[in-house]
Amino acid sequence: MPRVLTGDEYAVVKRLKSQRIFLKLNDSVAMEKIGSSEGIVATACADDHTDMIRHLRNALHTEVIHPVRVFGGPLVFVPSYGDHCKEACAWLLNNIIQGMRAKDADCLVLFEHGPCAMLDEYGHSIEDAVRWIIEIEDFFFSIDFFKDKKIIFLFHVKRKNKAGAIEQNTYMVDTGSLRSFLKQTKL
Asked: pTM above 0.85?
């Protein structure tokens, strides 16, 4: 049975929601930023126990999202992530760029989720995943191809609600607010 967030892990999500760092995907600000894209390539974890891509398609009312799925999703681009491999990252990055060119896509969605078995596998936490969002964003914007593209981070959460039912929600990450938050506060 796939894991859901623990109470402590969900407390991190609630804190980020209260700071308006995690914005519900149907939030008008999130929709305005994502919804104006010409084409979307989404890099997400290959974990099929989550419905990340379906949530994105439903929120945007489109079937035209080109997913690139690999276990760990965008985490694989972080050098301190346990499964980081420079050669594999170079190949994946090239595949994303070529796919965006071929599909004339102007938006890259980087999709993390919690809980994530790959975080668990390497002893990383949900806090690590959130902190790494900034490192991943900086990595992509350091590449000329992405300088005029939209890069959007989403974080998908799977938890048990108060009634005991499994609930899944997707949040857009306000990376500017996250940067400010991390400068002032330890996550």
From this structure: yes
